[in-house]
């Protein structure tokens, strides 16, 4: 079942150069909202959807969704209702315009929810047909954090010689105060392997894995910019610390002890993960 002005909204997103994966994500969210709206406001016309109705929907969703997921829903609803209002498809003003994103609790451990991890992995495999080298670079950076638990600083100074290819995995050696080896299995590691192949074909002789146009290690500012750009594209935050936290929680849920997870992260105190 289509939602109100669905084809027009999809055409609008396409005209704004949104990727197909993003359009599907936006459409799925609007379908979810409209299903809730039809159930709870069966006699109200779509063009008369009000701000209280949208707020009520978001409050219902907050019961079992993370702040990041709710903020993504708010962003999508902003986009949809701004489109309807600008095209004259609403009876009055934009009902979503004054709905603000949520404030995160600074003491809260920030990790990706299972649905966010699924969305992120879908994004990883949606390789664009332009700027392919940078696309694999970005996916390599994300994979090292999500599947390897690396920090932003470790990404910056990771060298090609620190990566060894085994039969079914990559072994990443992190040389800090204490060395640790991280295994990333081939189903995730292929983004890194592909990036390394492309980097070697560019005749970049730098020993570092991630470099700028002068073959120097990427700065922390550039690394944060890359993750910020990806976060905006996906619709929720995927910074190195969040991905590292997610890696840790995943390992813990797989049955690893706190000491084992701390060792994988290269830390002594489990609470430093937060």
UniProtKB/TrEMBL annotation:
**Where this protein primarily resides, as one coarse class?**
cytoplasm
Q: Which UniProt keywords apply?
A: DNA integration, DNA recombination, DNA-binding
GO biological process terms on file: DNA integration; DNA recombination
Q: What is this protein called?
A: Tyrosine-type recombinase/integrase
What region holds the Tyr recombinase domain?
107-274
Q: Which GO terms describe its cellular component?
A: cytoplasm
The record's annotation in CDD domains points to: DNA_BRE_C
The organism of origin for this protein: Paenibacillus xylanilyticus
Molecular function per GO? DNA binding
Instruction: Tell me which Pfam families the record gives.
Output: Phage_int_SAM_1, Phage_integrase
Q: Where in the cell is it found?
A: Cytoplasm
